[in-house]
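Hey,
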Amino acid sequence: MSENKLKIGIAQGDPNGIGWEIILKALADPRMTEICTPVIYGSAKAADHYRQTFAEPETVQLVPAASAHEARRGKVNIVECGEPQRIEPGHATPEAGRAAVEALRRAMQDLKEGLIDALVTAPIDKETVQNDDFRYTGHTEYLGAELGGEPLMILCSDVLRVGLVTKHIPVAEISRNITKEKIVHDLETMRRTLIADFGIVEPRIAVMALNPHAGDGGLLGTEETEIIKPAIVEAYGKGILAFGPFAADGLFAGGGYAHYDGILAMYHDQGLAPFKSLSPDGVNFTAGLTAVRTSPDHGTAFDIAGQDKADPQSMRNAIYTAIDIVETRRARTEWEANPLQRAERERGHRDVSAKDLPRNEKEE
């Protein structure tokens, strides 16, 4: 890690969910401030409330900062915002939704200004965050609107990376939102992110079918033959190693997913159900944007909020992944700026011609 430790912004999420518990537990390990400078956006009052619910009090000391610009290295910093009037663990309330949005927007402001290097978001409740000024079905859609782009939601772990063609929409609307153009675009985005953000030289991507048995030649649906297969053919013609369409049950149950660097699923539960079964502590990464954003791969878990039962491992992994992706992007940018010089440094030596040798070595 560089001496200039990355500043990682962390938005509190819903203050009535498990967000603060997993944040405090994840940052309780002092080694966290050795690999990055955490900057939390949220309520100090909520942090104190949840600290009191732990059987073994966490030792995280929060240092107030007006913005990430004032964040102190070696400390866990907090930009105070998103203060709820009441903290009610386990309850979905409009007040908590407002606090979650306020913290997210404050973090987004610093992200846009380059004051933090990446953003990690704790879970929000998609219903209570809705208001006249916030009409997004999730973080992914909000980030796309704020940062200008078409984001691709990718769930990632050490064993699997799953992207989604459609995200937070009703099941009844999935089919009409799947087009050849959208699949080709998402395959292009997935290839770029697997190369630039995960360091894979030339990724192989499996594309999932929409219908059972991949449509059975049109008996169970025509999306595979009319939309998905033509998209794969077009993407392959553009140099993308895309394969399929594969029936979901066969691809995952048979272990075929392990032969690919990424999987492109057609809809939310098709991708997330097998992913969470195979990677219980995975990470949600928003690909296709100039800024890096990750989150745990779970929700607010209102049923266990305030009970000291939340597992912080997915939050830890979200922080680790954000750091890794930022550094991978920077290393690739440096390499592309001067690939020959970089290659020589990595090799640790350069070829020496005869004229460079001392006289006694040439005479030998």
